[in-house]
Amino acid sequence: EYNVSNGLSLSGNPIGMHGVDPVSMFQDAGPSTGDAAYTSSHDGVDYYFSTVKAQQDFDANPESYLPQFGGFCAFGVFVGKKLDGDVRYADIVDGKLYLFVNAAIFQKYQEDKGAVIEGANEKWPGIVHSSVGDL
To answer: What is the pLDDT of residue 53?
Structure first.
């Protein structure tokens, strides 16, 4: 399951990362709103990009740009929940993108990043196929 926006793209797929360009998360300028003119699909989810170059980079290696845990909040996964991931509260650790639901949760995560990431990685396989409402 992926954390997707309400609504669908022109192709009929849900939109990942609320339309934010995932490649931009790895650049100094930070999150950029994507443009539907530059859309790529991955695993049934559409992602928007701010430039054709960003789209090409993603297409060459999508897994290196996608947020962990399907774009759900990493701390939420750590506690067994699927909370919305917000690009304003993000961290990149060992080349992987982690999103968080809000500033308070992001601050809590920063108290022990390693434990949260390790715990979330352990918990994810058990909840990945559970609907948000079942958790």
So the answer is: 97
